[in-house]
Here is the input.
Amino acid sequence: VQYVPIAMHAVRNTDGTDGISEAQLLDMMCILNDKYEEQEIQFYFTSPPIHYIYDSGINNAPGQFISELRSARIPDAINVFVTNNINNQVGAAGFYQSPAGWNGNDFIVIARGFVYAQNVFPHEIGHFFSLLHPFHGWENNPWNEGDWGNPVGNNAPSDPGIFPQPVATEFQNGNNCATAGDRICDTPPDYLFALHPNQMACNNWPIPVRDPNNTVVNPQENNIMSYFNNCGNYIFTADQKTAIQNDLFNSPDRAYVRNSFTPNMTAINSVPTLFSPSEGSTINNPGSVTLSWFPAQGSQYYVAELDISPGFSSPFRQSGVVGAATPNLNFSDLQSNSTYYWRVRGFTEYTTCTGYSDRGSFMTPLNVGIQRLAAVTSATLFPNPVKKGIDLNWQLQLNQPLTATLQIYNINGQRMSQSSVKLPIGIRNWTIPTEKLSSGVYIIVLENENGRQTERIVVE
Here is the structure.
């Protein structure tokens, strides 16, 4: 088995929000290694296992910060940056940034919404190891009869901004497979059919499109390098696997990721056992807590997660990674009078398909009251709990004028409303309607570029 290092970068907004969780990065590696296992290629984390970038621009439009990402690379590893969005494009999953080689760019960007897509991270790693799309030449121009005809022309409608030279249209019979399309002979032609409005996910392509020889094309929907989605059994073909092997073992551009290192292969057959705070207890320290646990045998690292949501999905989730020698982690900036949930997961640089501990919980006292907005001297929210349909009153004492955004989140992290707040100095009341809120727990967030004030409410 050839082991390949990956430097994984968790990109977040400048204020630390909207970022991939460490546990999701473990799941990404688990999916990746499953897809490459039969090729005897496996991937492992560099040390430290996760690197962090706090930059809102990069997090939402990484394609505009190529030089910055190139500078952030870690030597001797495939560098993977996981961002909130890809250039603010809905549905964009990721990209490989050429040119290849350490002296090029040679890194991968993945949108965090596609962590669990079975063909996204393995797909971009395929690009890293020289593979092209089966629809090479049709990027940005998916087939439709009105534009490209049926049969199609001898050249794909390759965008001159991407392809300096025309790309020959691949024939179904494979006669020109070595020089057309993706240059892989056991992948059939694909004229980017996945983006046609008549194509339904991974169903068989329904339209009899003909190649320049007037032969009906039959694409391979479940190919990892295609764009068809929701296929349950994505695969590489034999020739694609050979191309990956050739690139990894023979290309000068890949010398910097080739090594004879064998990572920590220890199996982890247990999960951590939570120790403190004890289940259901109320902590004493105002605004912070130290979570501690009994080790899981074989773990090299631990990731601990803390959240007011039992599903660990709210905007206020906190997490961190520590080495096995330190089975505890401190978290601060807790909300008052709230139930917090926590869990821990062990892993090694290679073993990432691991389980969580049981979920623990504890309460914070009434007097936590972490103050983050300098303009707010005191804040009182009443009534709380509140009956649905009754307005909430948020009384704020301000020592300077305040302009901020008011947002309401449910316990699962979904934003329910957003509005602007502009208040002069003094004691001010702000009314928050509840008629559109269902019964449950919500977090009220008042924030601007200088900080954040949060309160927990219960709607009955």
